[in-house]
Amino acid sequence: MMNRLTRCSYQDGLISAGFTLIELVIVIAIIGILAAVAIPKFLNLSSNAQAAATSAVAGSLSSANGSNYAARSLSVSLGVPITNCTSASNLLEGGLPSGYTITATVVSAGTTVTCTLNGPSSTTATFTVTGIT
């Protein structure tokens, strides 16, 4: 009795089983179409991930600035002084990750300024710092 999943033929006393050439070609064509549709989506994910990472670092800088301002307001021995946007890189433990830069902008004491973080692949994000000496 022949199994439903196996194709067998009896030709010249030999039993042969397998797929036909057209079946294999169709499967390869379907895989090629799926790859052609999926690859552009995966390539775009890389740039989205870099933009998300840059936004995450900017969010960390804003959060660290709030903690620094509160600590520095209590005592000048706590936290770090913020007189320029680039001073915010000292707010993160270990400093600013490699590949990221901050555009320099002067920050006066007591004022809040929006700064720009430049990340890999020309990604940018903004964060705020409040000047304190």
Key traits:
18% strand; 133 residues; 5 strands; alpha+beta; rod-shaped
Notes on the protein architecture:
The chain has 133 residues and is an alpha+beta fold. The protein contains one helix and five strands. It has a three-stranded antiparallel beta sheet with strand order 3-4-5. Strand 4 (112-118) and strand 5 (124-130) form a beta hairpin. The mean pLDDT is 89.
Please sum up the structure shown.
The protein has one helix at 21-74; strands at residues 8-11, 14-17, 101-102, 112-118, 124-130. It is of the alpha+beta class and 133 residues long. Strands 3-4-5 form a three-stranded antiparallel sheet. A two-stranded antiparallel ribbon has the order 1-2.
Q: Report how far apart the termini are.
A: 89 Å
Could you tell me the number of beta strands?
5
Q: Which segments are poorly predicted (pLDDT under 50) over 5 or more consecutive residues?
A: none
Strand residue content: 15-25%
Number of helices: 1
Task: From the alpha carbons, calculate the radius of gyration and give it in angstroms.
Answer: 30 Å
Shape: rod-shaped
- What integer is the average pLDDT? 89
Pattern of helices and strands? EEHEEE
Helical amount among residues, as a percent range?
Answer: 40-55%
Instruction: Give, in spatial order, the strands making up the sheet with the most strands.
Output: 3-4-5
Q: Structural class, from secondary structure content?
A: alpha+beta
Largest sheet: 3 strands, antiparallel
